[in-house]
Fold each of these.
Amino acid sequence: MDYQAVLEEVAAFARPLVGRGQVADYIPALAEVDIAQFGMAVVDVDGGIHGVGAWERPFSVQSISKAFGLALVLAEGGDKIWERVGTEPSGNPFNSLVQLEYEQGIPRNPFINAGALVVTDRLQTLTGDASTTMLEFLRAESGNPELSFDPAVAKSESEHGDRNAALAHFMASYGNLDNPVPTVLEHYFWQCSIEMSCRDLALAAGFLARHGLRADGSRLLPRREAKQVNAVMLTCGTYDAAGDFAYRVGLPGKSGVGGGIIAVIPGRCTLCVWSPGLDARGNSVAGVAALDHFTTLTGWSVF
């Protein structure tokens, strides 16, 4: 596969869509990002790295961090997390309170905000420092020791995080948080504020394409649990547009309102695309189109 040629064609296809949509202006620090940007990277399971556009420019990972949080919790604590969070698509916005109340404090899946807060709580219990544990893992897997948090983004999210606080307090009232709500929120906001490039994220997610093997060849997850992460990404990874994403792209994916999307082709490669303009459901307009075109050109999907 000539990945570079494919990426160039994908970038040309996506170019007319770059700048469409809206940046995540409900997080003030993200409202300042230039919407007219696009980057994409692919890393194959043998370590080959290819990119196009602004593929080495760091951006805020936001909810993409949820995929790594889930993997770390499974690695550290096994499948007990599934007693506290489900695996079903939500069909509702990622910060919905309605569904959480109906289901008595048990989030529908780990990729809506309520579910990610439970995962962060569990990682905090297992490690004593959830956000730093994630940052160190991402540095190791990406091979980039310079990865860091963005204090301005974390502060912005904290100052405008009333809905997340409400979700956390509601779950705490049902006994579904072990740590104090402020602690869980702090680590959650720091995780979301991590800055990474398409290159960094495609490398860091490589263990999902290698069926649980880390970059150094050691095993992070048993093959079964790597499959579980990929499965939940496929069905729940793009907010309440997961069905449409599975239909169009056909790959496990996890998006973030920073405009990034990671995608996995097990046994072949990982992809990351970034373009800050979001659709009404919080997914990158140009990013989804780019991944759709990539699978069309290559014929690769999980189906």
Amino acid sequence: MASHDTAKILAGKVALVTGAGRGLGRAFAEKLAALGADVAIHGMRENGPAEYGEGTTLTAVAAEIGRQFGVRSQRVLGDLTKGEDIARVTAETEAALGPIDILVHNAGGDIAAAGGKPDPNDAVHIKEADVRAVLERNLLSTILTCQAVAKGMMERRRGRIVTLGSVAAFKGRTNGAIYAVSKAGVTHYTRCLADQLRPYDIAVNCIAPGDTRTGRFLGTRAVDPDRMVETGTLDRIATVDEVARVVEFFAGPMGAFVSGQVLRIDGGGQCWPG
């Protein structure tokens, strides 16, 4: 959990964090709230936080974050593969909290059309419905959500956008191939958006986590206990806070002149150009 002792460097700012009911998204929202930002907590389902035992409801998560960090918070529900839902999510956020200064688009995942992991999940045999679902959930949602939020930021000539890539984007892989392709697309869309928004003083960056100890990660695979240590080696699974600290950098004053970048957060697991 973030500490109350952190300087309130984002006081007066409004942040929208998508996919924030649990896991990394919740950690990002807590980090921004600890820094003083008012936060909109987006989720696709009201009961999503309970899926891997990380909470109860999206409403409860939003209320708890607001109470814990002494900021205003708002729960917003919507399917971010649909333009009309995105428009409503942004409108509800701004009606409750004010214009969006920070977008952290975390929603996504290697999730099949019917839920769960695609099966098969390779480059050749994955079902068409699952190809579309993974591309829409990750790449299309990123493009459409960034478009919606960027328009207001351009009018105000200020803002920060952080997208969520993955180390999967930078290496050919048989398993999870379409997810990797979608995250490679997210990475490059981020660069294109950053180029367009430079004249508007809006910094746009992508973070690319490796394995991170979220409820979903730990609940959907066998994990080597040796990689669950937190000190003594970088060859381990990241804590959610180690990833959230990078969002603090990109969203805060230190990141003001950094844009168009993708930063891998994997303890040096990929030591080659991205």
